[in-house]
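In line with agreed milestones, the collection of sequences with tokenised folds has grown. One record among many is set out beneath this paragraph:
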Amino acid sequence: MPVRLALLASLVFLAPAVGRAGDIDPYLPADTDSYLSVNLKQILSSKAGKKLGDDALKSAIAALDEPNAILKEVGADPLKDLEQIQVSSPKSAEADRGLMIFTGTFDADALKKKADDDKDAAEPKVKAHKAPLGNKEFHAVYELNVAGLDGPRFVAVADNKTLLASGGKDYVIDALKQARSKKKPALKDKQVQAVLEKLDSKLGIAVVTRGGALPKSDLLDLVPKNIRDALDSVEVIGGGAAFSNEIRFDLVGTCKTAEDAATLRDLSSKGIALIQVGVKFLGNDNKYLGLLSEVLDTAKVGGKDKLVTLTAKLSADVLDDFGK
């Protein structure tokens, strides 16, 4: 699903939330291989988010062609009606795979009216389908033909707070069925599920993706072999940031073995300590180095078995000083 994941993922290091780890979204597809969530409401309403300024975030949201095109077609304003967007992608790169889950305020009646008005058109922009959910029950799924997108997008207003969208109608129908079953989603990739469940469920921004071998590079050849081996052992990595009166950063990774994880935890702790020494040696006159020093001073490495965790934070006071 071509949804500028890289752009949104870059926002992770602008800003996690006060919440708990545990449940994942009931609409999440079973073939989820990578995941992104941005909670606009939390970021824009938080003290820390306001100190960073919301212009950059608004510009980033405005640049998201596919979500904006879909929201416009259903009569929703991303900056007024949207609270959160979640993007689930499978391993396949095909345009009709994956699911977007929008949380906010959506008008199912307005979408139905558009489909009714368009039904006699030669090339309707909105077409209604009756999707079977089992037990002789159906749910309206709308096919949107939006200019600029590579094929139709299928959407359903699951309730007044949830809009589902995908290039594949089957993804939308399966998500509706999954939520109705009231069963905990069971992902095919148990490592991805483990990382998702370990992350705070109310992160302002969250990203989960598969790891993999480091690319070949002359510069990476200079990195000690034990560090390269430890990074190569990371199979799934997730991270995020929460906005409140401060910004808290979280990172969670799963390694191939418990020994690999223990090695990575040890190397991470030593690496942070080494960088702290280097930053202090360079001095605190540079405000960017000062900001990095503040983050490193709060960094904590943890985890057990195959898990590696890292947390750090920035207080609102530090952000105030940085802004000045």
Notes: The first strand starts at residue 34 and ends at 39.
